[in-house]
Design a protein that fits this description.
2 domains; 3 helices
Length: 151
């Protein structure tokens, strides 16, 4: 038998032994070394915080201009309210669910639903905002009628 065949046979036997080996839980070191888990504070801006509106307005205008060749823009928000805060288990990402009325530059009013999540912004350094304007969700990302943007 050649050296090459012996090497291939050894690799195959080692692989078979590893695959058919006993499955064990992670040991103490694997569970605790540099894996501290999430540390959420639950500190989020309110639904009517100007910085939240600025993010929604800027991203809406960018989406309309870049993808839909439209010059629509949100000019104001009205009837803003919080719908829910941390509706899931305690260890999940804290989110504040909000809704309101968006006044669009074409003179129409559309319901808007958005959530503010802790550490969901740029590379997890700040809060993030997910939003949907009913009737202007042209790519159906939160279809139907922005239902998927609600808690």
């Amino acid at each position: 038998m050649s050296v090459r065949r012996v090497g291939v046979a050894a690799i195959l036997l080692l692989g078979a032994a590893l695959v058919s080996g006993e499955v064990r839980a992670a040991n103490w070191f694997e569970l605790n070394f540099w894996l501290p888990g999430p540390r959420y504070d639950g500190v989020l801006p309110s639904c009517d915080a100007p910085v939240v509106f600025e993010k929604i307005i800027a991203r809406f205008a960018e989406k309309e201009n870049l993808y839909w060749n439209s010059h629509l823009a949100i000019v104001a928000f009205d009837d803003v309210r919080e719908n829910n805060f941390r509706p899931w288990a305690a260890d999940t990402i804290p989110r504040r669910w909000c809704s309101g009325i968006a006044h669009v530059s074409d003179g129409r009013k559309h319901p808007v639903y958005y959530s503010i999540g802790e550490d969901t912004g740029m590379i997890g350094q700040t809060f993030g905002v997910e939003w949907c304007v009913v009737g202007l969700d042209r790519n159906w990302a939160y279809s139907p009628a922005c239902k998927m943007a609600r808690p």
